[in-house]
Each structure stands twice: as C-alpha cells, then as structure tokens.
Amino acid sequence: PSVSQVALRIRPMSAAELAEGARPIAHRVDEQVVVLRDPMEDPDDILRASRSREKSYVFDVAFDSSATQETVYRATTRGLVAGVVSGHNATVFAYGPTGCGKTYTMLGTDSEPGVCAHTLGELFQAIEDTSGDTEYEVSMSYLEIYNEMIRDLLNPSLGCLQLREDAGGTVQVAGITKISAISAEEVSQRAPMGHGGGPANPPLPGAARLPQVLQVLARGNRQRTQEPTVTNCTSSRSHAVLQVTVRQRRRGRGLRRGRLFMIDLAGSERAAQTQNHGQRMKEGAHINRSLLALGNCIKALSHRASTKYINYRDSKLTRLLKDSLGGNSHTVMIAHISPASTAFEESRSTLTYAHRAKSIRAT
User: Fold this and answer.
1) For the whole model, what pTM was predicted?
2) Annotated binding site: which residue ranges?
3) Of 113, 159, 191, 343, which residue is most buried, by most CB within 10 angstroms?
4) Binding site for ATP, residues?
C-alpha cells in the first residue's frame, strides 16, 4: 500500500510580486487539483489554441491562501501521531522554492503555530491519554545540513558532526544534543484518578512543557544559516531536521521505538532565479544536490518493482532519512509554491517534483 501523502500549499501573492506587476497564474480548483497557467503563451495564438495553456496537477490535498495552519496540520500530519506513539516511523517535509512559506508551515509564528507545534502538542496529549502500565520517553534533536555538513542547532559550538550506523542498522548523528521532552519518571508518576473522575493531581507535564520545547526550537531555528538572496531576504540555506524519538515500554512487552522527522528543506530554486554567485552559488549547488538525491530516492521508491537498489548514500539528508523513507514509515510532503506569474518556472518544477513523490510505495 502507498503510505505517502503529498499536499500542495499556495501562498498569497507578496507585496513585492504585486509591486512588480505579477499576475496570479496558479490556483486551486478543488480539494485536490491545482492548475498552473503558462504566462508566456499568447491567448490569441490560433496555431497553439489546441494546446492547452493550463496544466492541472492532482494531489492528495491542496490548500490555497485561505487555509489556516490548523487546517493544514489536520489534513496532513495529525494522522501520523498515533503511529509514532505506537512505534512506527514518520517523516514530514516542507518542500519548495525560497520564500514560498516552508518555514511558516513548519514553525509558524507565535499567533499562528505551525505543524511542529501542533504535532508535539498532540503527541504529548496522546501519551498523557494512554493507560498507566506504559512508560514513555520522548527525546528531541534539532540539526541543520548545510553544504553537506551537519551542525547541531541546539549546540552549534559542537562543530561538524558525523553520521554513524548503529548495530541495528539505524543511522544516527554521533554526539548530537538530545533534549528530553518527557522522561519515563514523569509518566510512571502518573496521577491517580480523583473522586470526581478527573486526576487527583494536575495533569502530566507534557502539555505544560510544550511552550518551553517550542522556545528551544525557535532558538535553534535562529541558529540556521540564513543569507539574503534575490528571491528572499532571510533565505534558509540549509535543511533543518527536527527528530523526535518516542520510546515506549509496556509491562511484560519489550521496548518499541518510533521516530518522527519534521524537515524544513532549503529552497529548491534554480541558480538563474536567485542570481547567486560565489559562496551563494556553491551553497545552491549543495542544496540542489541533496534535493536531487532525495528526488532520486523518491523516484526509485515509486518504481519499487523495477528498482532493486535505492541509493541513500548520495547525500547526508537521504542517509539520515533511510529508515524513514523506505521502512515501516509514513511520509508526508507539503510542497509550496507562489501563485505569481514571475515564479512560473519554479512553480512548474515544484509541481512536477511533488507529483512524482505521490507514487512512493513503502513496505
């Protein structure tokens, strides 16, 4: 069965796009269909009249600029939480060109929290709601992959970290900082029920801990490598990877582990679009290399029958995600585009890439 889901989100037109006279050329037709119109084709050209100027793309779910953060979370990521709590792997990607709303979707703002905040809140709640004979531990790490080097965003002074494969074949980052979001002790000291049906003591610290956890993430995100480019003045030049590990120990039944990756990918635009030179150009090549490696893995996974070998070793990103792309995993990609006519080429390549991801088959 296919357990991958691909969503597409169209952000509103920006002030800069409106100022330069851009027209909207991408729009959502219904729950699943997005249409992109080529702004260069002349509507009055009789010879080309038979060739439609519009191309439609079908996704599992499509959002336009009216969709709230809550709506996006519920339609894409909410269903993953129960699986992670019970020991499965899951991965959520935000994909698309610079300045199209990836970081907004993943982290959001204080007043409009994104996928990460909603997911962690729901995860803590699910753990609080489970029966008392189960112990849980939740730990988190937050890293960036920049120019094929791994940096710990929670402790950048550690320098460049290496990937290692443990005895079980799981790829780990050696020496990364792990923060405990919920420890086994907290869960085993679960409050007994009071006479009124509610807990005798206040509820477990999981939900109360959420604001602190989100502050840690916001601090980590400020450590990301950002540089101004022509397309976005605070362009993230790295992939940011938040890994949440849930260990579950039930009395009389061994240990289960679920891993959730929430990933804000670096911008996927072509070099010509950003007019980058020198260092920015080099960064762009690394970004595109890892996105290409990810695309190749996605392509190979979507043609499982004919492809025996899937090359996860082409980039740090795909090595890190090996279990989460090909194993007992659920994968969600939220692709982002701008509706502006000036962004046509970027939007077209994003729609094509995301459409290909729709056919991943996991085992």
Assistant:
1) 0.87
2) 96-103
3) 343
4) 96-103
